[in-house]
Amino acid sequence: TTVEVKHESPEDTQGVKLALTGEVPAQVLGQLSVARSRDALAGNGFQATLALEHRNLRHGFSARWEYASDGFRQLGFHDGFLPPRLVSSLSYNYTHPDWGNLGVAFARSDTRTSGKLSTYSLNYTTRVGVASSVAFSLTRVEGASRGTAVGVSFVAPLDGALTALGSATFRDGRHDGYA
Q1: Is the pTM of this model over 0.85?
Q2: More reliable by pLDDT, 10 or 85
């Protein structure tokens, strides 16, 4: 178990954070943190985070939940920046030595300025030949902003120091390509 205690006290914004990170049952890494802030303009604020993660050779998952009150402030952000009210995410990865890697993810953000956003993503990567790889991705965003993106990329080592890369992305009627 790791314990982190952090205190910041410049002129206008002060903060304190306590975080605990350690193994929970089933070889899962867990993190719990709480933070308080006091800002000259925003007043007192609170933030809490809970995260879980598990990885092995075939499977991996992560889950994260973070809440911040209206008055919570962090050093390094300008006075007008309001932290998201609630951010949550879930992801799962499956890796097969011959077939490649498949990943799915979901994230939701409830911001104070631009509303709620939900993001869904799916990706697949596989080896091509001895050392090259190709990756496909599909991402959908819904909520205050909407859109879908589809991408493909190819990576091939040319020699010990050079790598060739090509990628293409298609989103909402626009196309981007790089080589």
Answers
A1: no
A2: 85
